[in-house]
């Protein structure tokens, strides 16, 4: 048995993902041409996306991480917990590109963006791999995004269910038996 057996269908193949990232990397490159900036990857979900993205941006950048969790083992949006932030010197006066795996209600990035501004960032833009635009609960539109997805729970390419499936090279929907086995609706 492998993780592939738990996937009902593939929504974005590895090849589709990489061509979407090529496009976004060109947009980011054009936006930051001639300006210093720092890519701030939101752990854990965006680490796969951020690492493919930065390798397609051929201009100087710095890299930082922050950790926020809102989900636990559940698939319903919960409270945001900010576990750690970059050092003050990595934020103060910097142009930041906040990179996350998926924009759902938008509460996570909205709160993070506000907190980074409060800590002295000069400018904060957002870049997301997936956008569930129909689910937005706060006024936040990503500055850059790879793909829009409908209102369904997806895994792979950094996105997890109960801590697993982040290492799938594509994005897929889980079989309903997997949720049932984990005691989820
Ligand atoms: P928001 O605060 O925008 O509602 O939630 C964003 C976070 O929820 C994402 O960073 C991600 O961790 C989680 N999330 C939202 N939708 C999904 C999904 O379909 N699959 C997975 N694995 N995580 C999701
Ligand atoms: Mg996340």
Question: How many strands, which pairing sense, and closed or not: the largest β-sheet?
Answer: 6 strands, mixed
Q: Summarize the helix and strand pattern as letters.
A: EHEHEEHEHEEEEH
Shape: globular
Number of strands: 9
Q: What share of the residues does DSSP label as strand, in percent? A: 25-35%
Q: Looking across the biggest beta sheet, what order are the strands in?
A: 4-3-2-5-6-7
Put simply, the count of helices is 5
Terminal-residue CA separation? 24 Å
Helical content stands at 25-40%
Chain-averaged pLDDT: 93
> Rounded to an integer, what's the Rg over CA atoms?
16 Å
Bound molecules: guanosine-5'-monophosphate, magnesium ion
Structure, briefly:
The protein is of the alpha/beta class and 185 residues long. Helices cover 26% and strands 29% of the residues.
How is the topology of this model organized?
Layout lengths: L6 E6 L1 H19 L5 E6 L3 H8 L7 E8 L11 E4 L3 H4 L3 E9 L3 H12 L4 E9 L12 E5 L5 E2 L15 E4 L1 H6 L4
Parallel strand pairs: 2-3, 2-5, 5-6, 6-7
Antiparallel strand pairs: 1-9, 3-4, 8-9
The structure holds guanosine-5'-monophosphate and magnesium ion (MG).
Describe this structure in words.
The chain has 185 residues and is α/β, with parallel strands linked by helices. The chain has 5 helices and 9 strands, in the order E-H-E-H-E-E-H-E-H-E-E-E-E-H. It has helices at 14-32, 47-54, 88-91, 107-118, 176-181; strands at residues 7-12, 38-43, 62-69, 81-84, 95-103, 123-131, 144-148, 154-155, 171-174. The strands form 2 sheets. The chain has a 6-stranded mixed β-sheet with strand order 4-3-2-5-6-7, sandwiched between helices. The chain has a 3-stranded antiparallel β-sheet with strand order 1-9-8. Helix 1 (14-32) packs across helix 2. The relative contact order is 0.20. The site of guanosine-5'-monophosphate has 19 residues, from strand 5, helix 4 and strand 8. Magnesium ion binds next to strand 5.
């Amino acid at each position: 048995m492998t993780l592939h057996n738990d996937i009902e269908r593939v929504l974005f193949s590895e090849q589709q993902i990489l061509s979407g990232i090529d496009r976004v990397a060109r947009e980011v490159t054009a936006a930051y041409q001639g300006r210093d900036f720092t890519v701030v990857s939101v752990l854990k979900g965006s680490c796969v996306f951020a690492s493919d993205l930065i390798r397609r941006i051929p201009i100087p950048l710095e890299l930082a991480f922050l950790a926020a969790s809102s989900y636990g083992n559940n698939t319903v949006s919960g409270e945001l917990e900010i576990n750690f932030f970059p050092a003050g010197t990595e934020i103060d006066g910097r142009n930041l590109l906040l990179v996350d795996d998926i924009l759902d209600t938008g509460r996570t990035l909205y709160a993070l963006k506000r907190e980074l501004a409060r800590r002295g960032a000069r400018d904060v833009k957002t870049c997301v791999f997936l956008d569930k635009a129909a689910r937005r609960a706060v006024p936040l539109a990503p500055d850059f995004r790879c793909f829009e997805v409908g209102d369904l729970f997806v895994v792979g390419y950094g996105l997890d269910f109960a801590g697993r499936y982040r290492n799938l090279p594509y994005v897929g929907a889980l079989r309903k038996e997997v949720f049932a086995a984990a005691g989820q609706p």
